[in-house]
Amino acid sequence: MAEAGTGFLEQLKSCIVWSWTYLWTLWFFIMLFLVYILRVPLKINDNLTTVSMFLNTLTPKFYVALTGTSSLISGLILIFEWWYFRKYGTSFIEQVSVSHLRPLLGGVDNSAPSAASAAGGDADSNRQSVSECKVWRNPLNLFRGAEYNRYTWVTGREPLTYYDMNLSAQDHQTFFTCDTDHLRPADAIMQKAWRERNPQARISAAHEALELNECATAYILLAEEEATTIVEAEKLFKQALKAGEGCYRRSQQLQHHGAQYEAQHRRDTNVLVYIKRRLAMCARKLGRTREAVKMMRDLMKEFPLLSMFNIHENLLEALLELQAYADVQAVLAKYDDISLPKSATICYTAALLKARAVSDKFSPEAASRRGLSTAEMNAVEAIHRAVEFNPHVPKYLLEMKSLILPPEHILKRGDSEAIAYAFFHLQHWKRVEGALNLLHCTWEGTFRMIPYPLEKGHLFYPYPICTETADRELLPSFHEVSVYPKKELPFFILFTAGLCSFTAMLALLTHQFPELMGVFAKAFLSTLFAPLNFVMEKVENILPSSLWHQLTRI
Questions:
Q1: Residues 245 and 393 in one domain
Q2: Average pLDDT of the residues of the chain
Q3: Angle subtended at Cα 409 by Cα 139 and Cα 475, rounded to the nearest 5 degrees
Q4: Least CB-packed of 286, 315, 376, 479 within 10 Å?
Q5: Which residue blocks in 357-490 are alpha helix, DSSP H?
Q6: Contact status, residue 268 vs residue 277, Cβ threshold 8 Å
Q7: What letters, b where the CB count within 10 A reaches 16 and e where it falls short, cover 228-252?
Q8: How far is CA 349 from CA 78, 345, 410, 460, 523, in A?
Q9: How many domains does the structure of the chain reveal?
Q10: HSE value, Cβ hemisphere, 13 Å, CA-based, for 536
């Protein structure tokens, strides 16, 4: 009985909702009918006659002013909509309508997943999408003092955004501090220094910490931010290495004595790995590439579990500089695995190696005549795979889009990762004869293989929709963010552009040909109201005259 009562209530509720959904249409027609019935008591005909007489007395200057003002207002709206779309990637009017007006009108977001669809495959794809939108530390990030600041001194532009630097500050606090820092005065000072927003305050705190003790993290901060050349940074990192190794050995002996000692050892391990990795990068930048490769290999053997630093990407770039392609292939065989996260470096380096085997003799004309060989097909498929993972990279490699300094953090599959990859690897593609020509001939073919809209991927998960928003936060404002898929212009931009052009044309024509435009306006209005007059005449003929007379007397 209870279930039957519940089912009856649900049916009644659905009937009421359905009736209210369509009741407004009936109400609208009833109001129109009442207005028509009461047109004599309300003197609607007289009022319309008065309005028409008033409009006839208006001069053409009034219509010129009216259409000109409409054109000006719609033009201002168009300019604002275009600016908002270029800055935020969406229409302001559409955003306000969806965010504020739609809830007031009882709109429901159909894109919200139900409880049933959240299970199984959809949940897995959602988790993958969230992980792909995660911001990662750039493994090849530059030095602030020796590289980023030099760019600012020369150009007057800030290459790093506040959001990017704030993420770096969070990383430093995570890797270089622990709960026992307050027990050591120098580490306590550095714990505060990593939270400072002012660069000079951070540098002063590092010097203050060094006056108390040989502090490895203080040397790191000075090498990153105060050193103006790579040589100076390398000297400071060598001093940091000496202090960091001593702390690491001491904490390694005490790591099993309690949770605090274990946390301190974990911090000292992060500090040591960071120092050795930056020393290897200094050697690479100073031209000692073989030494850098050896340091990176030793570091990966000593700390194989610390994959968070992505040292293998530094190693791949250094091996490509040495043109040690067999070693590059060996590294890719280990890290280009289906169970490991991908990156632009992994995918595009694999494509470069396969393109290297055929690019020097590749000709699009010959390939169209005879077809692609097996090696060429493998190279093209590798390029398509790389482009599907990050579609922004080819424009930078082909120099169709200008490069900027890479940020300290990147978003995988986003424009920031594409900049970071092309900034360091463009020279390696240029060194392989014909590789860029093969990329130029084949990369756009990837988009014919990917389903559209992008609800499904071909070789990877669907392209995440969050990349544009995150890249706008990571990249400086003077850079034009690459967007994929290319967004079409919102409806309201096209509508306001058409309205502005149409009203401007009416204003011009009314000013030049006032009499002709008056005749045209009267003809247009008479044509517009002709169907309504026809319907009114038919209604008067159908209804009996006595009934019509009684209704008009009410």
A1: no
A2: 78
A3: 135
A4: 286
A5: 364-370, 374-389, 393-397, 415-431, 435-442, 467-474
A6: no
A7: eebebbbebbebbbebbbebbeebe
A8: 44, 6, 18, 17, 69
A9: 3
A10: 12
Is 501 within a domain?
no
The reported pLDDT for the residue numbered 115 is 36
Residue 195 lies in a domain: yes
Q: Which residues contact 351 (CB under 8 A, 6 or more apart)?
A: 379, 382, 383, 385, 386, 439
Largest CA distance in the chain: 111
Backbone angles phi, psi at 137, to 5 degrees: -70, 130
Q: Kindly give the interhelix angle for 435-442 and 415-431, rounded to the nearest 10 degrees.
A: 130
Residue 24 is part of which domain span? 13-57
In which region does residue 236 sit, left (phi positive, over 0), alpha (psi from -120 to 50) or beta (all else)? alpha
Query: Nearest 5°: CA angle at 404, between 401 and 406?
Result: 120
> Which candidate, 138, 143, 189, 192, places its Cα nearest to that of 167?
138
Same domain, 294 and 379: no
Q: What are the CA-CA distances from residue 368 to residues 357, 363, 371, 372 (Å)?
A: 19, 9, 5, 8
pLDDT at 527: 80
Total residue count of the chain as it appears in this document: 554
